[in-house]
Fold:
Amino acid sequence: MKDDLTKVWNKRYSEEDYAYGTEPNEFLREKLNDLNPKSILFPAEGEGRNAIYAATLGWKVDAFDISDEGKRKALKLAENKKVSIDYRVGNLSELGYEKEQFDTIALIFAHFPAIVRTSLHSQLSSLLKSNGIIVFEGFSKKHLTYREKNPNVGGPGDIDQLFSEEELRNDFFDYDFLFFEEAEVELSEGKYHNGTGSVIRFVAKKK
Structure:
């Protein structure tokens, strides 16, 4: 499965244009403005638009993905913006991050296969300091209806890779949710996120 997913994302990120644009996700932009820049991790970061934005604000940024092409594009964008990030490629368990290393983790459209999602969320949680913050936005299970009407809005076509409130609250059971909503949004993020969709987003503090 990993090799197949790597091929899919390498193909998408090998295109000349940035698949989801070079501007940060709007929810992330809004929430980072409420936080003091410290250390932050971006899982499944793709071409780096969110990580590079955080770096321009003074955050110490780490990011990872399974795609070498994603890293290549991210480092190119970082060079253009005159910032630096630590970007690693591979499976999370192999990347050498330390427990309680980060003050913040940003999960922005980080959709994982259902069979490993809860485990990955647990691994990521172990990397966050006590009282650390998660900023999260991902497509809800309702999004499948929107995607069927307009494939250009993007997102997984497999409902098991989409999120429900119950699943997320179970995965992050040891957090205080400071903000949580399921909302209809208008996306205009590069070539692959365009149109009306349904997202779940939250900010939570680790207990």
Summary: DSSP finds seven helices and seven strands in the chain. The beta strands are 39-42, 60-65, 86-89, 102-108, 128-139, 175-189, 193-206. The mean pLDDT is 97.
